[in-house]
Design a protein that fits this description.
Blueprint (H helix, E strand, L loop, with lengths): L3 H21 L5 H29 L12 E4 L3 E4 L4 E6 L2 E6 L19 E7 L1 H4 L9 H12 L3 E7 L5 H12 L6 E6 L3 H8 L3 E3 L5 E4 L10 H10 L1 H13 L28 H7 L1 H17 L3 E5 L28 H12 L4 E3 L1 H5 L17 H18 L7 H19 L1
Helix pairs in contact: 4-13
Length: 426
């Protein structure tokens, strides 16, 4: 008779053989089952993230608005574009793909440092200078460069336009990024909505040691990641870019951390008549914008860089049919409204010593001003960009910022010839 110990050993051997047979039959142990489940879950998550990344990177191919891969929160200008970001703008009036360059602007890549002999004009503005609603080549900056290159092949126009920028955000961007572009001249494009934008962004305004506007800090949201991790993910992942844009829109820390103007602000206040906006309130509304412009003046004068403020009209200021029916969304009446802000700013420019150029005449004297604006959206059409570029190009040439390629050489030769003739006469 076998002992109990021997019987137990025999039983264990039998169980071991049965487990091996189970393995051969395709059945797994509980431990292996858990590991397999975890691996499948990890693979599913990774596959989902890869698919999301592909969708976000190439979503602009789909004919819908896809700006999540373009807009980012900015440390000095509230928001800007990602370098080499790609997005799309679609509405019933246009379908435009946005492709950004190495400095995050809708332009060709910009050489830094500036090549010798290059005559660089920097154009700073909002959605109009971003080329809202038009294709590359139709934009103001592209057309302006083409016109100036006819006079001098070394002329270069650098676009620095971001939708919903205002004078304060443009100043913040210029102080951090614009100077390194080494511009030979600067155009600052003044939009009707700048006043409301400045009022909103001023809640995050940081001033320099002299009390001047320095920058607009980026908006903050809840569930914020540490900044180094956030910036790394923004660089490598379109999915995170879209996620961050959704989060700042849905979970800003305060109502001043996301947006372009307060719901209670009248975005079109500068174009309202005195009956709607008394002069005292009107002057007060402009105070931040004027301060930003004076700071621009001081900075550019210190660097010896020529510049000018360029003001352009909305459709309701130049023609009864322009920006129709879109103007009704801004509560503008039919007919032409008085150009109050042009009259006001021409006086401000003299008081604050601001070099100033108005596009009001160029637009109002066009044979068909309505063609210069998108009927519902209100931004310039391709024709509007063309009219603006021609007028500004003529003013740049008048000011002598760009000279004909051989003009300097000819002047030098003529001066030398005059000196030789004078010697002969003596």
């Amino acid at each position: 008779m076998e002992s109990p110990g021997v019987l137990m050993d025999v039983e264990r051997d039998r169980e071991g053989k049965e487990e091996k047979r189970e393995g051969l039959d395709g059945r797994t142990s509980p431990r292996r089952s858990v590991i397999g489940t975890v691996l499948k879950s990890v693979f599913s998550v990774l596959l989902t993230l890869v698919l999301l990344e592909l969708v976000c990177r190439f979503f602009y191919f789909v004919p819908v608005t896809a700006r999540g891969g373009v807009f980012r929160r900015d440390a000095v200008a509230d928001h800007s574009h990602y370098p080499y970001g790609i997005g799309r703008m679609v509405n019933p009036e246009f379908d435009v793909v946005l492709r950004m360059n190495n400095i995050g602007m809708r332009d060709d890549d910009i050489a830094i440092p500036k090549p010798p002999g290059r005559k660089r004009i920097l154009v700073i503005g909002d959605s109009f200078m971003e080329g809202w609603g038009v294709q590359r080549g139709e934009m103001f900056t592209d057309r302006l460069e083409k016109l100036l290159k006819r006079e001098n092949p070394d002329a270069e126009v650098v676009a620095a336009g971001v939708a919903s920028w205002s004078t304060l955000t443009e100043l913040g961007w210029f102080r951090r990024n614009g100077k390194r572009l080494q511009p030979d001249a600067v155009l600052l494009m003044l939009d009707t909505t700048d006043v409301a934008g400045d009022s909103f962004y001023a809640h995050r305004l940081v001033r320099d040691g002299r009390g001047r506007p320095l920058l607009i800090r980026r908006g903050e949201r809840y569930l914020e990641l540490p900044l180094p991790i956030h910036e790394f993910l923004c660089r490598v992942s379109y999915t995170y870019r879209v996620f961050d844009r959704i989060m700042i829109k849905k979970l800003p820390k305060t109502k001043w951390d996301y947006g372009y103007w307060d719901d209670g602000d009248d975005v079109w206040l500068p174009a309202r008549p005195p009956e709607e906006v008394p002069q005292e309130k009107y002057e007060q509304a402009w105070s931040l914008t004027r301060e930003a412009l004076r700071t621009f003046r001081d900075l550019l004068d210190e660097e010896g860089i020529p510049w000018m403020v360029v003001q352009y009209p909305i459709g309701a200021e130049v023609d009864t049919d322009a920006w129709m029916p879109g103007r009704h969304t801004a509560d503008f009446p039919d007919g032409i409204i008085a150009p109050r802000r042009f009259e006001y700013f021409s006086r401000v420019a003299k008081e604050d010593r601001l070099p100033y150029f108005s596009l009001f005449e160029a637009f109002s004297k066009d044979k068909r001003p309505a063609r210069l604006y998108l009927p519902r959206d209100g931004h310039w059409s391709a024709a509007g960009h063309e009219v603006a570029a021609r007028a500004v190009a003529a003013e740049i040439l008048r000011r002598g910022w760009i000279r004909k390629e051989n003009e300097g050489k000819e002047k030098g030769e003529n001066a030398e010839e005059e000196r030789e003739n004078a010697k002969g006469e003596r």
